[in-house]
Amino acid sequence: DALMSFFGSMGNDAGYNAWLNDMMTEQNRGSIGAALATQPIIGTIVGTVVGGMLIGGSDNYMRLFVVMGGFVILFGIAAILFMKDAPQLRPSKNGSFGKQLFSAFNFRELIKMKELVWVFLVLTVYFIAFNVYYPHIGNYMIYYLGFRADSIGIIQGIALIVGMLSVIPASKLLSKNKFVLATSISVLLSFVGVGIVGLFGRPENIDPSTIWNWSLLIGLFFFGCGYIMFMQVTSVWMKQLFPEESKGQFEGFRIVFFVLIPWIVSPFIANPIIKNNGQILDSNGFAAYLPTNVLFLISTLLVLATFVPLFFAARQRRAREAKEQTR
Fold first, then answer.
1. How many domains does the chain contain in total?
2. Is the pLDDT of residue 105 over 70?
3. pLDDT class for 19, splitting at 50, 70, 90?
4. Contact in structure between 303 and 197 (CB atoms under 8 Å)
C-alpha cells in the first residue's frame, strides 16, 4: 500500500495537479474544475466495478490488490517519464535544491494567506466527515445490507454517473464567481445524501437481491452530486489563490489538508461508532464489527460542520474582493 501510494501520489499529486495549476486560466477554470471533480468519480466507478469482478465469488482480495496496485505504480512511473512542464514555466533559482525542498514545509507563508487557509480548512472538515463513512461503504453494503461484492460497484456507478451532471450548474456558478454559494449547495447535497442512506439504509428496508433499492440509489445520487460539486468548486477556488511563483509548494499544502489530516483524524471518530453500534459474532464465535446506518447518521452532523470554516472563508473572500474593487 505504501509503495503504491508513493508512486501514485508522485504521478497524481506532485505531477498532474501541479501541472494543472500551471495550465489554469480565468477562461478554462470551470472546465478544469469539472475534470478534477469527475475523474475521481470515474476512478471510483471503474475501481468498484472492476474490483468486484477481480474479487469475484471466491473473495480473492489478493488478486485485487496486486492488479490495482500494479496499475497505480505503472501509471505513476509513466507520469514521471512522460509528463512535461508548462511551456512558460521557468526553473526556480531561489537557493539550493535542499533549501527549496524544505521550503515546502514553511507554513509561515501559508498563514499570511487567510482566505486560502480557511478554504483548506473547509476541505479538511468536509473530508474528515467523508472519511468517516465512505471508506466503510463497501463493508456496509456487503456485510450489513447483504449485497454481493460485484453488485455494489453497479449500484454506486449508477448513482454517481447520474450525479456527474452536477458539474454543469456548478460550472455556471463558477463562471459567475459564486464560489461560496456553490460550495454551500454542495455541502447541503452531501448532507441530504448521507442522511437518506443513514435513515433508510437498514436491512429491513433493503432487498440485496436487486440493485433497484431506490432509497439507497437516491441517497448515493445526492451524495454524488454534492461530492462532485464540492471537489469541482473547491479545487478551482484553492488553485486560483495559489501564488504564481509557488504553485507546487502550495499543492503540497493542499495534500496536507485534503489527505493527511482527514486520514489521521477520521478513524478516531469512525472506529468507536462502529464498535459501539455494529458488534456481531462471526461463525467462530469471535466478536466482529460492522459499519451500520448509525455511522451515516452521525456523519451528517460532521458534514454540516463544514459550514463553520466556510463562513470564515466567505468573509475573507468578500474582504479581498472589496479591496480589489477599490484599486
1. 1
2. no
3. confident
4. no
**Chain centre distance of CA 86:** 26
* CATH number (domain holding residue 296): 1.20.1250.20
Nearest 5°: the CA angle 130, 25, 187 is 20
Element (H, E) at 325: helix 307-325
Q: Which of 152, 269, 162 is nearest to 218 (CA)?
A: 162
Arithmetic mean of pLDDT, 73-98: 78
Instruction: Please report the pLDDT score of residue 269 as a whole number.
Output: 96
Assess if residue 37 is contained within a domain: no
Exposure b/e, 21-60, CB count within 10 A at least 16 = b: beebeeeebbebbbebbbeebeebbebbbbbbebbeeeee
Name, in order, each residue with C-beta under 8 angstroms of 287's C-beta and a sequence gap of 6 or more. 279, 280, 281
Give a yes or no: residue 1 inside a domain: no
Core vs surface per residue 82-113: b (16+ CB within 10 A) or e: eeeeeeeeeeeeeeeeeeeeeeeeeeeebeeb
- In tens, the pLDDT along 177-210 reads 899 999 999 999 999 999 999 999 999 999 999 9
Cell of 82: 512522460
Pinpoint the alpha helices (H) of 57-178. Answer: 61-82, 97-103, 107-111, 114-133, 137-139, 149-163, 167-175
Give me 246's grid cell: 509557488
Q: Which amino acid, 197? A: V
Confidence (pTM): 0.85
Distance in angstroms (rounded) separating the CA atoms of residues 88 and 120: 27
Q: Domain span at residue 184?
A: 107-325
Determine, yes or no, domain membership for 101: no
> Looking at the domain assignment, is residue 73 inside a domain?
no
> First and final CA of the chain: distance in angstroms?
51
